[in-house]
Each structure stands twice: as structure tokens, then as C-alpha cells.
Design brief:
Blueprint: E1 4-9, E2 12-17, H1 27-42, E3 48-53, H2 78-87, E4 92-96, E5 99-101, H3 103-110, E6 113-116, E7 121-123, H4 137-145, H5 147-156, E8 160-161, H6 162-167, E9 173-174, H7 179-195, H8 211-215, H9 219-227, H10 236-249, H11 252-267, H12 270-284, E10 303-306, H13 310-321, E11 326-329, H14 333-352, H15 358-366, E12 368-371, E13 382-385, H16 391-404, E14 410-413, H17 420-424, E15 433-438, E16 447-451, H18 458-470, E17 474-478, H19 486-503, H20 507-517, H21 523-530, H22 532-545, H23 558-565, H24 590-602, H25 612-632, H26 639-649, H27 659-666, H28 668-682, H29 690-698
The protein binds acetoacetyl-coenzyme A.
Length: about 700
């Protein structure tokens, strides 16, 4: 089947891009498009052209898989093909449906008129791949939608609805109906334009959208200032701004050349490679090699959540947000009322920020049914337990659920550390038990670590992985171990951060280095946000279980314990590792510094200057090393799954591709050698993992596993 299908609608030629699954503009499509343009320009039987996409969408842009490869010499880039398309004397109309993203929207902008169907997403998301719209998008979009709108859309990479696209002038006509209706309207528009005396309206000739930048040339600098925090560490967003600035100051043809130069500098850099990796990793994660793609799933029409604390409440909101009715169970009425009130307040805060309508909030609240009676979960399709992290409590609860719930229910636990198999063994149906580890705040963080128990059945896995998507989450399937993937690696990261403080660094030094690396915040600000008391309790339990001695050879909690002894639990108490005068912004606190210096002396450690490089290596290399152990043990299916866990659960910078991809860019040999050195200097917990050493020996990276 041809990559561009040609049909006729009377005297209008209909070109359908045909490259499943998303009509990516790979070289066969470009070749087909170019040939059709040449032929149709000369065809006296054709008055106009309609371009559309076969299948479920118009076009999702360049074929990302082609980046970094060379097409056959005779195939041109998209930019000159679009120049020819736009330059045609016959009207060219885009019939847009489903998605028009990246090069797909650039193609549409090269057409003379755009008709768009319902439920369509349009945008230029290239920046999320570390590049810029490289087929004239940075030059045509500001001309069509105005400079401010173009800046916002291109630098955020946001996809907009057809309604917003219409209001911004990106599409000219909205049509309500199926694809055929959209095509019919586009054909009618082409016929109308063919009969009109005016020349085709070409985006490249338009100047109205550029006027605002001519009136206010300072607009670009203020935009750069406003994006500085979001674009931290990245090049692509700034390149996008430079190109739009070029659109406002240069002739169209020169602007295109400028855009090309900027694009070429980005496309093979680490930033773009990392973000492409992230894109494919996020899609790969849904594929479970030993669970057949066509495994039947169980219908999830309603849900139950047990526990109305921060996690339980957040999880209930996640279901309600997805339109799934949810019953929330708490044993005490007062705790239930408080939990529901917290949910209401959370929604109300979103409404007051204008991000949710009052009617939508009311609808979501109505989907949440509070109860103190577990029996009300009898007919529920999935139950998520989010009670106190205590094995005996959970086992007792699962035994009760086993008695109460209907056959076929999925029984999920939100435990962040406990053994899912032990919990499952408390029921008569361990095949129906799975872990669904949400990250706090559950209604915000996108990660769901779905923990597969030894006996979890394939259809439960398939259902929960699908459910993650329905809930707007990224589900990653992991195996059972203490802390699963994310928290087990986090432990390494936090431990070294604590040791570094004992040895000479201050929390603000460490936080600065990791923030500059691209983390949303450093480890100490993160602990203050999560609450220092949580780890404190865990350490106390561990010490008790270990006969009064900390488990580690070297204990990392000495300073943290002193901080907690003072009630400095973090943001919620106004003080933690930092102080919070305004309740949110961390400020170094001399009181903490005094405790740190005093503790170093007590531990017999002579404080020394610690370089930024050492901070980064000490915090991140052991984290990667633990990732290698996790892979070796089969707890994660792929290195890229670990990257997804860290990008979506902990905000590891996407432009670095996640910790394992980043490790490959650093070089595993470098990391292996450093871990050996750390092992000698600090202790056996820093020993490089066998898998890491094996890959170093073989000269390979995690990507080649
Ligand atoms: N190139 C190659 N493959 C692509 C692709 C693209 N542009 N977009 C999606 N795919 C693949 C996915 O990898 C996935 O493959 P598998 O089934 O093998 O995993 C398949 O298409 C379906 O994708 P999704 O699972 O993402 O499907 P969805 O329905 O959830 O989302 C979408 C559809 C909104 C189009 C989403 O796929 C998406 O956002 N795609 C990327 C869009 C994009 O960034 N375009 C810009 C490309 S760069 C560019 O165009 C440069 C330029 O200036 C010329």
C-alpha cells in the first residue's frame, strides 16, 4: 500500500497520508507527497487538493525513529516539500482529525486553509523531544497565531483542542462529525477557493501575527525570563524562542534557514537523544513480554479505597478524576470526615486557581462515597488498600477483604515497602492480588509502580497496567523487593547525601548541585516536603528490630535523628533541614549548621571541602549502581523502565533520559571505576554491582542489555 493514497472527489484530489500507526512523515511519505504535488500541479483535471490522514489521525509529525539516520539521497526534507505545497497556485486544504502534531501541524500550516474535526489535538510538541519545529513551524505559527501564542505553544509543546486552535486562528473552520464529514467540508472549501479570484492565502506571506513583536521587541527577553525556571538546563526551549524572534525580524526564507541551523544543532545532542529515549521508554513500559497483548482484561466500573489519609484520599481523587465511582472506607467516622474534607479542600484549591470548574468539582465529589463499613466493597471491581504501613494490619485487612469481596475483584495494596506475596498469602486468591504503589501526592504524581506478586495472574497485570493509563498514570511493572524500584534506589541517594553532610557539605550545597543537575528540588528540600518524621519512624523500627543497633555498617541517620528530636519535621512544622519563613521556600538555618558541625566532631570526622562533582557522583552513581542490581535481580524488566520510574516518580530530568540512560551518557566505565574508589574510601555498600562490571568488561551500556 502506498504511503500517500490519492483519490478524487470530483475535480478535487484527496491525498491521504498512510503510514500507521500515526502517519509519521517518514521518507516514503515525503517521497509520495512530493511526487503528488508535482503531478497534481500539472493536472488540468484537478482544481484543488485536500490533504488528510488515513486511519485514526491526521499526522503526528516526523517519524521519530528516523532521527539520526540518513534518508536515501533523492528524498528531500519536509521543509522544501512544504514550500512547494504552499507555493501551489491551486488551493490546498488540510482536513484535520484526531491529532496534528509536530511536522503534522507544520504540514497543515503549509496548506492554504484548515478544516478540523471534533476531539482533535493540535500542537508543536518538538521541544518535548529536545528539538524545535524544524519544518517551518517556528516561522509559520507566529504569522498565523501571533507571536505570543506561538511562544507559549512552541516552548511548552502543549497540544491544544480544536476549539482553542480555532480561537487562535490556527484552524479556519470547525466541523462536527466523523472523518468523512471533515473531508467533505475540506473538499467543499477547496472547491470554493478554486472558484474564487483571490490568490491562495499562504502562511509565509502573512505578517499580521508578527506586528505585536514589532510593536514590542522586548517581548522576547521578558518571555525568556519567564521561562527560565522551567527551561533550566535545556537548550531546545531557548532555540525555539530564537527562531520565533527570527520570524519577527527576518524575511521568511532567511527565517527558515535560521530554523534549520538551530534544528541541526539540537537534533543529535544529548538533550534530544535523552528525550527521544524518554518518549520510547514511556511507550515500551506498557509491553510485558510474558503477558500476551491480547490477554483479556477485567472490567473496572467502580473502585474501593481503604484508608482516608493522604494517600487513600489522593487515590480516591485519581479514580474520581477518571470518572470512576469510588467508595472510600475508613474505620473511624471522624477520620473519614476529615479525609473527605481534605479531598474537598484539594478540589476547591484547584477550582480557585481556575484549573477546574465548580460543576466538574461537584461531579467528582459525587463520585466519591464515604463509608465506615467494609461490607460496602462487596460488589467492587478493584479495591486499593492504603492503610498504615504495618504487615499485620494489612494481612488482617486482606483476609477480611477475601471474605467480603465478590469473586474476580482485584485486590491491590499501595504498600511502598512490604512484601506483596506475604500480603497475598493472607487471602485464598493470591492470583487476584497486586501492588499499586502510587506516589505522593497521588492525584498529582504520574507514576504507578505496579507490583507483580509471585502468583499475580496475567489478566490482573493486564487490567492494572491498562487501568494506569485510564487513570492518566504511567504504570511500570516491577517485582517484589524492599522498596521496589523507586524507593530502593532513593535510599542510596539519600544515604550518600546524609554522609556528605557529615563529611563537610551543607544541605544547601547538596540541594544546589542536584537542582542545577535538573532535579525539581534537592534531597533535603525533598525530605522536608515529604516529612522527616516518616524516615525517622522507619529508622527507629529498624534499630529496635536490630537489637538497638542501626543496620548499616555506617549509620546515615545521626543528624536526621537530631533534627527530628527537635520536632523539625519539615515544611509542615515550618522547620526541617531548612527553615521556611514563608511556609514554602527553604532557607539555610544556622541552627541546623551548628548541629551538623557538632555531629561531625562527635563522629570523629574532620570536615573537608567537598566539590560539586563529588556531590553529584556520590549521590547519583550509587543510585545507578542499585538500578543495575535491580535489573540483575529481574525486579525491573528493562533499564528504560527504571528511567520511567525516576522521571515520573521523582522528577529526574527528562532531558537526561532517566538515571540509567544518563549513566550510559556518562559511560559505565567511569561509573564503575568511581564506585570501586568509593568502595575503598567509604565501605562495602559502595561496591559496584556485578552487572555494572560485566557491562564495563563488555564495553556496553544499559541500552544494549
Ligand atoms: N514517530 C514515530 N513513531 C511514533 C510517533 C512519531 N512521531 N508518534 C507516535 N509513535 C508511535 C509510538 O511509539 C507508538 O508505537 P508502539 O505502538 O510501537 O509503542 C505508536 O506510535 C502509538 O503511539 P502512542 O502510544 O503514543 O499513541 P497515543 O494514541 O497515546 O498518542 C500521539 C498519539 C498523541 C500522536 C502521541 O504518539 C505523540 O505525542 N506522538 C509524538 C508527537 C510528536 O512529538 N511529534 C513531533 C515529532 S518531531 C517533528 O515533527 C519534527 C519536525 O519538525 C518535522
Amino acid at each position: 500500500m502506498s504511503a500517500v493514497i490519492e483519490e478524487r472527489r470530483g475535480r478535487i484530489a484527496l491525498l491521504k497520508l498512510n503510514n500507521p500507526p500515526v502517519n509519521g512523515l517518514g521518507w516514503p511519505v515525503r517521497e509520495g507527497l512530493e511526487a503528488a504535488i508535482l503531478r497534481l500541479a500539472a493536472d488540468a483535471e484537478v482544481d484543488g487538493i485536500v490533504v488528510t490522514g488515513a486511519g485514526r489521525m491526521f499526522c503526528a509529525g516526523a517519524d521519530i525513529r528516523e532521527f539520526g539516520t540518513e534518508p536515501p539521497a533523492h528524498v528531500r526534507r519536509l521543509t522544501p516539500i512544504l514550500d512547494d505545497l504552499e507555493g501551489m497556485e491551486k488551493p490546498v486544504v488540510a482536513a484535520i482529525h484526531g491529532v496534528a502534531a509536530g511536522g503534522g501541524l507544520e504540514l497543515a500550516l503549509g496548506c492554504h486553509y484548515r478544516v478540523c474535526g471534533p476531539k482533535t489535538k493540535l500542537g508543536l510538541p518538538e521541544v518535548t523531544l529536545g528539538i524545535l519545529p524544524g519544518a517551518g513551524g517556528t516561522q509559520r505559527m507566529p504569522r498565523v497565531a501571533g507571536v505570543s501564542k506561538a511562544l507559549e505553544l512552541i516552548v511548552s509543546g502543549r497540544l491544544v483542542s480544536e476549539k482553542e486552535a480555532y480561537e487562535s486562528g490556527i484552524v479556519d473552520e470547525l466541523v462536527d462529525g466523523d472523518v468523512d464529514t471533515v473531508i467533505a467540508a475540506a473538499v467543499a472549501a477547496a472547491e470554493r477557493l478554486a472558484k474564487s479570484d483571490s490568490a491562495p492565502r499562504r502562511s509565509c506571506d502573512r505578517t499580521d501575527g508578527l506586528q505585536e513583536a514589532k510593536d514590542n521587541p522586548g517581548l522576547f527577553d521578558s518571555f525568556r525570563k519567564s521561562m527560565a525556571k522551567r527551561a533550566r538546563g535545556m537548550n531546545a526551549p531557548y532555540a525555539c524562542v530564537r527562531c520565533i524572534e527570527a520570524a519577527a525580524t527576518m524575511e521568511f526564507a532567511d527565517g527558515l534557514k535560521f530554523e534549520r541551523k538551530e534544528f541541526e544543532q539540537l537534533v543529535n545532542a544529548d538533550e534530544a537523544r535523552s528525550m527521544r529515549h524518554a518518549f520510547f521508554a514511556e511507550r515500551e513500559v506498557a509491553k510485558i513480554p510474558d503477558v500476551a497483548k491480547d490477554t483479556p482484561t477485567r472490567p473496572i466500573q467502580n473502585a474501593g479505597v481503604i484508608g482516608c489519609g493522604t494517600m487513600g484520599g489522593g487515590i480516591a481523587m485519581v479514580f474520581a478524576n477518571a470518572g470512576i465511582p469510588v467508595t472510600i472506607v475508613e474505620s473511624e467516622q471522624a477520620a473519614l470526615d476529615a479525609g473527605i474534607e481534605k479531598i474537598r479542600k484539594n478540589y476547591a484549591a484547584t477550582v480557585s486557581k481556575g484549573r477546574l470548574g465548580q460543576a466538574e468539582m461537584d461531579k467528582r465529589m459525587a463520585l466519591i462515597t464515604p463509608t465506615t463499613d467494609l461490607v460496602e466493597l462487596a460488589a467492587t471491581d478493584i479495591v486499593v488498600e492504603a492503610v498504615f504501613e504495618d504487615m499485620s494490619v494489612k494481612k488482617e485487612l486482606f483476609a477480611r477483604l477475601d471474605r467480603v469481596c465478590k469473586p474476580g475483584v482485584i485486590m491491590a495494596t499501595n504498600t511502598s515497602t512490604l512484601d506483596v506475596d506475604e500480603i497475598a498469602a493472607a487471602t485464598s486468591r493470591p492470583e487476584d492480588v497486586i501492588g499499586t504503589h502510587f506516589f505522593s501526592p497521588a492525584n498529582v504524581m504520574r507514576l504507578m509502580e505496579n507490583v507483580r506478586g509471585e502468583k499475580t495472574s496475567d489478566d490482573v497485570i493486564a487490567t492494572v497496567m491498562g487501568l494506569s493509563k485510564t487513570l492518566g498514570k504511567v504504570g511500570v511493572l516491577v517485582g517484589v523487593c524492599h522498596g521496589f524500584v523507586g524507593n530502593r534506589m532513593l535510599h542510596q541517594y539519600l544515604r550518600e547525601a546524609m554522609f556528605l553532610v557529615e563529611e563537610g557539605a551543607l544541605p544547601q550545597d547538596i540541594d544546589r548541585v542536584l537542582y542545577d543537575f535538573g532535579m525539581p528540588m534537592g534531597p533535603f528540600a525533598m525530605c522536608d516536603l515529604a516529612g522527616n518524621d516518616v524516615g525517622w519512624r522507619v529508622r527507629q523500627e529498624q534499630i529496635k528490630a536490630n537489637g538497638g543497633k542501626p543496620t548499616n555498617i555506617r549509620y546515615s541517620g545521626t543528624i536526621a535523628d537530631k533534627i527530628c528530636d527537635l520536632g523539625r519535621f519539615g515544611q509542615k512544622t515550618g522547620k526541617g533541614w531548612f527553615k521556611y519563613a514563608d511556609g514554602r521556600t527553604p532557607e539555610p538555618d544556622p541552627e541546623v549548621e551548628a548541629i551538623i558541625v557538632e555531629t561531625s566532631a562527635e563522629l570523629g570526622l574532620e570536615r573537608r571541602d567537598i566539590s560539586d562533582d563529588e556531590i553529584l557522583e556520590r549521590c547519583l552513581y550509587p543510585l545507578v549502581n542499585e538500578g543495575a542490581k535491580i535489573l540483575d535481580e529481574g525486579i525491573a524488566l528493562r533499564a528504560s523502565d527504571i528511567d520511567v520510574v525516576w522521571m515520573h516518580g521523582y522528577g529526574f530530568p527528562r532531558f537526561r533520559g532517566g538515571p540509567m540512560f544518563w549513566a550510559d551518557t556518562v559511560g559505565l566505565k567511569t561509573i564503575g571505576e568511581k564506585m570501586r574508589q568509593f568502595e575503598k574510601e567509604h565501605g562495602p555498600w559502595m561496591a559496584p554491582s556485578p552487572l555494572l562490571l560485566k557491562l564495563v568488561d563488555e564495553g556496553k551500556g544499559f541500552a544494549e542489555l
